[in-house]
Structure formats: C-alpha cells, structure tokens
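Query structure, 154 tokens:
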C-alpha cells in the first residue's frame, strides 16, 4: 500500500479543513460587569453629570452606599483561557473598578478609576476580626458531629 499523494490530495484537504475548522481565531473570554468601562468613564463629567446620566450611560451600579456618603461602584472583569502549558486555567485579562462619589443633590463630585495595576498597589489590612458569638464549646461541637453521623445528610 503505497500512499499516492496525487490520488489522496482531495481527502487530505477535506480532513485538514475539518481539523482547522475547530481552531478559534478569537480568544474565548468570560465577561462580568460593565463592558468597556474605561471608555464610558471618559464620558462622565465631574460637577456636570448627575445620577440619571450615570444610570443612562452605565446602568445600575453593582454596589451602593446608603449612608450620608453617596458612593456607587461599577466593576468590569474579563477572564480568558490560559495557554496549553498552563492547562487552560483562567487568566485575568482586565479588572477595572469605577468608584463614583455624589453630593447630596445627586451631582457627581469625584470619580476614581482603578485598573489591574492600581488594584495591585492597594494595601489591605492584615487584622482578623474574631466572632465570639458563633463560637461553640467543645461539647456542642462533639454533639453536633455525633448528630451528623447518626442522621447523615438526607
């Protein structure tokens, strides 16, 4: 059985076409939040835009404060697939956060935009808050584990 290229060329083209058809030209991305947040942020003007303008441009915020400081937070996050040598794990492509501060009349006072590089520079507190209300004694933990073993998860 000798492979004659000129006789099997059409079969080779069809098989290679279907193999290449499975390849993607664009990377697959998973988006969360407001797309193109940085471009939309440029359209907001300090001391001119109000809450209605922001809702019309960006939609409802992800987080609002309900105290005297009226702060709205918008998020954009894009995950892409990693390389094959990373076993296809997710890679963080963009992680943008927009923080808007309004005065008591609903007019935009300041806006802070944080991208992936800015968020890495933020220092978080290392302190841990202990919750003494939900701590259980040794006897309670023991009885709870016995109860789980007796009745199981139904």
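Result returned for the query:
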């Amino acid at each position: 059985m000798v492979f004659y290229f000129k006789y099997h060329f059409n079969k080779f083209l069809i098989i290679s076409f279907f193999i290449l058809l499975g390849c993607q030209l664009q990377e697959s991305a998973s988006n969360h939040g407001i797309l193109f947040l940085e471009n939309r942020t440029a359209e907001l003007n300090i001391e001119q835009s109000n809450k209605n303008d922001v809702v019309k441009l960006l939609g409802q915020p992800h987080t609002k404060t309900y105290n005297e400081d009226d702060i709205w937070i918008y998020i954009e996050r894009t995950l892409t697939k990693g390389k094959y040598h990373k076993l296809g794990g997710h890679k963080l492509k963009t992680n943008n956060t927009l923080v808007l501060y309004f005065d008591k009349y609903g007019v935009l006072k300041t806006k802070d935009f944080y991208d992936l590089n800015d968020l890495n520079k933020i220092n978080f507190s290392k302190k841990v808050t202990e919750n003494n209300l939900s701590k259980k004694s040794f006897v309670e933990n023991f009885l709870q584990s016995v109860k789980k073993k007796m009745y199981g998860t139904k």
